[in-house]
TrEMBL record:
<feature type="transmembrane region" description="Helical">
    <location>
        <begin position="135"/>
        <end position="154"/>
    </location>
</feature>
<dbReference type="InterPro" id="IPR036259">
    <property type="entry name" value="MFS_trans_sf"/>
</dbReference>
<feature type="transmembrane region" description="Helical">
    <location>
        <begin position="215"/>
        <end position="238"/>
    </location>
</feature>
<dbReference type="Pfam" id="PF07690">
    <property type="entry name" value="MFS_1"/>
</dbReference>
<feature type="transmembrane region" description="Helical">
    <location>
        <begin position="364"/>
        <end position="383"/>
    </location>
</feature>
<feature type="transmembrane region" description="Helical">
    <location>
        <begin position="250"/>
        <end position="270"/>
    </location>
</feature>
<keyword id="KW-1133">Transmembrane helix</keyword>
<feature type="transmembrane region" description="Helical">
    <location>
        <begin position="12"/>
        <end position="33"/>
    </location>
</feature>
<protein>
    <submittedName>
        <fullName>MFS transporter</fullName>
    </submittedName>
</protein>
<dbReference type="InterPro" id="IPR020846">
    <property type="entry name" value="MFS_dom"/>
</dbReference>
<dbReference type="InterPro" id="IPR050930">
    <property type="entry name" value="MFS_Vesicular_Transporter"/>
</dbReference>
<dbReference type="InterPro" id="IPR001958">
    <property type="entry name" value="Tet-R_TetA/multi-R_MdtG-like"/>
</dbReference>
<keyword id="KW-0813">Transport</keyword>
<feature type="transmembrane region" description="Helical">
    <location>
        <begin position="282"/>
        <end position="315"/>
    </location>
</feature>
<feature type="transmembrane region" description="Helical">
    <location>
        <begin position="102"/>
        <end position="123"/>
    </location>
</feature>
<feature type="domain" description="Major facilitator superfamily (MFS) profile">
    <location>
        <begin position="11"/>
        <end position="388"/>
    </location>
</feature>
<feature type="transmembrane region" description="Helical">
    <location>
        <begin position="166"/>
        <end position="185"/>
    </location>
</feature>
Length: 399
């Protein structure tokens, strides 16, 4: 039993590390990607298609990987995702045109898109319902830490050449594969009587099923709001406040840092005292206030406050929604997490396009749109009868 518990802990810690590694690999190329695009003489529209192309490729492919994880196991899909993630970054070293860069991005997105739902499904399988929300929050913290460290590492690597971040990201991902193979326990559960196997097209139907569609819709809305922030905040800071690159980087770091702090320090306390519905609703309101601060900002400090609020709010809402989805027991965890990741990818694909259009009309447009969206999601979530009975499974009762 002790050996089993030890292996389980190693699996969890390695999953946290892989999540950290994947987000570090994603973030480490952010400082270098614009320079690579400039070296290929790409337009701003072509640069935007590289971001949207990655997100849309994930949207169409991630449900397939989630379904496959339920059939062959989460661990094999995770290993394929790690390999695809690493190979995609190494192939960027050979990109010499827009078409080759776009093709590499799309192929990389398709191959690596199974990594997130497989890792999340493994975590939900390795935890009972009582501790699942906290474990998902820790996954979010690992992701946030990776996003914090990635751009910093990319900046430190810049003296070694424009392509050095791509090489490091690819190498680290490939080096993680043997450790994942040895230490990660699949945690594959037998299909329960309530679950039934579905094919790829059937899995899409669950996006519109009761007890799923509301949660997937909120996931989509949050992704649109978040991607509006990430795609347009830098432009707002430069044009409204003449911010330096350091100040722009600080804004993103503050947002990620606030989310990590909540997920590591405060989330478990909230789990023990509030229902899932209250926790997620609270997070949506906090995010709405953050977007309003940025939209109506008159000083750089107000933008920083808005970023902190958005980080806090997302740290409460996102893991709670994933936990609620994981508790639905109609189809396998891999399929559910795949659909969740698909909605997230769709939002990250649509969000920047919509935000760019609104920003061309008014600099505050994307952030006020995100504010209205969070308010609408709050009322939709708060007054939906589908969520009235959902409670945190880690809640403890004391006399």
């Amino acid at each position: 039993m002790e050996r089993g518990n030890s292996l389980t802990k190693k699996s969890l810690y390695l999953l946290y590390f892989i999540t950290f590694l994947s987000m570090t690999g994603y973030g480490v190329v952010l400082p270098a990607l614009p320079y690579l695009a400039a070296s290929l003489d790409l337009s701003s529209f072509q640069m935007g298609t590289l971001i949207t192309g990655w997100a849309l490729a994930q949207f169409f492919s991630v449900p397939f990987w989630g379904m496959l994880a339920d059939r062959i196991g989460k661990k094999p899909v995770l290993l394929i995702g790690l390999g695809g993630f690493g190979v995609a970054f190494l192939l960027l070293l050979a990109a010499n045109s827009y078409l080759s860069l776009l093709l590499i991005r799309v192929i990389g997105a398709i191959l690596s898109s199974g990594m997130q739902p497989a890792a999340m499904a493994l975590v939900t399988n390795l935890h009972d319902k009582k501790n699942r929300s906290e474990a998902i929050a820790k996954m979010g913290a690992a992701s946030g830490l990776g996003f914090l460290c990635g751009p910093l590492a990319g900046s430190l690597l810049s003296p070694f050449g424009m392509t050095s971040p791509f090489f490091l990201s690819g190498l680290l991902s490939l080096l993680a594969i043997p450790f994942a193979w040895i230490f990660i326990i699949d945690g594959q559960n037998k299909r329960t009587a309530k679950q039934h196997e579905v094919n790829f097209l059937q899995s899409i139907r669950f996006l519109f099923e009761k007890d799923y569609k509301q949660l997937f819709l909120i996931t989509l809305g949050m992704a649109v709001a978040a991607s509006s922030l990430f795609s347009m905040l830098g432009f707002l800071l430069m044009e409204r406040f003449l911010a330096t690159p350091f100040e722009t980087g600080a804004a993103f770091s503050i947002q990620s840092g606030a989310a990590v702090f909540v997920q590591l320090v405060l989330f478990s306390f909230v789990c023990r005292h509030l229902t899932e519905k209250v926790t997620a609703s609270f997070g949506l309101i906090i995010q709405a206030l953050g977007f309003a601060c940025i939209g109506f900002s008159f000083h750089l400090s107000v933008v920083f406050i808005g970023c902190i609020l958005i980080g806090i709010g997302s740290a409460f809402t996102r893991p709670t929604l994933i936990s609620m989805l994981a508790r639905q027991n109609t189809i396998g965890q891999g399929t559910v997490m795949g659909l969740q990741a698909a909605m997230d990818s769709l939002g990250r694909g649509v969000g920047p396009l919509l935000a760019g259009l609104l920003y061309s009309m008014a600099h505050s447009g994307p952030f006020l749109m995100a504010f209205v969206l969070c308010i609408c999601l709050f009322f939709y979530f708060s007054f939906s009868k589908s969520f009235t009975e959902h409670r945190m499974h880690s809640r403890t009762i004391t006399k």
